[in-house]
Amino acid sequence: xxxxxxxxxxxxxxxxxxxxxxxxxxxxxxxxxxxxxxxxxxxxxxxxxxxxxxxxxxxxxxxxxxxxxxxxxxxxxxxxxxxxxxxxxxxxxxxxxxxxxxxxxxxxxxxxxxxxxxxxxxxxxxxxxxxxxxxxxxxxxxxxxxxxxxxxxxxxxxxxxxxxxxxxxxxxxxxxxxxxxxxxxxxxxxxxxxxxxxxxxxxxxxxxxxxxxxxxxxxxxxxxxxxxxxxxxxxxxxxxxxxxxxxxxxxxxxxxxxxxxxxxxxxxxxxxxxxxxxxxxxxxxxxxxxxxxxxxxxxxxxxxxxxxxxxxxxxxxxxxxxxxx
Length: 325
What we know:
Low-confidence stretches: 1-10
Largest sheet: 16 strands, antiparallel, barrel
CATH superfamily: Porin
Structural class: mainly beta
Distance between the termini: 24 Å
Helix content: under 10%
Strand order of the largest sheet: 1-2-3-4-5-6-7-10-11-12-13-14-15-16-17-18
Shape: globular
Number of strands: 18
Order of helices and strands: EEEEEHEEEEEEEEEEEEE
Strand content: over 45%
């Protein structure tokens, strides 16, 4: 999501952003091709109101018994209005991304994530759709030169609407950020309030050492039926002419993830058997916000081992809806 950090005349101009990509996925010898568009709109209204929305439009071509099968999907990821009272307090209403751990809000956009696939344990705590319909309060609780604490708390009603589907739930997240160490640590808690009530617990750690292009991201999530974690690292070298040199544009990646079953009553979007997966990637960052994504994954489980190859190209666009004053 985009957010407003300060007020100014230029921020009265709506921004159209998002990503366009062409992705391929080869699993067990079968290749699926997916052209995809994810447009995002951020439209300020005066000094204190902001409207945000992101959509997904994709076509998928996958192997079938008599050639390729064509499917398509069009839908809104979220559709919300923000009232920015101060840097400490923002009220959000509408359909919003559930603030549990970090992946759902920060890494799910097409043009940001390093890998095509989301981690195996990501769905834990996201109540199925990853979105809520209701209200949220978020902001910076404390901001000091040495540290800051951010928070987000929400309530979601049950909605059976095809476009804005959600479960009745409540929860939130608190994060501590240390700017000198460039380290963030967060804790999350969500509770499902319909059907069989369940609790979900999560934590995340992000570390980006100063004066380097190394990033470490990780999450842990635990629900009533399963738990899991993922750890991801990526690096770009500055030793051969900087990040914009031919060598500096290469970005090797590695992600390790595991899920563990506590029972097999409900999947929660997690594999029904204990699963381990190692993901190896090599992205290339071209000029003008174009990225080439490549990765290989090896999955181990009692249901059978599997190899997965993925490639794609993604372009991130950003421009004003019209000329600002």
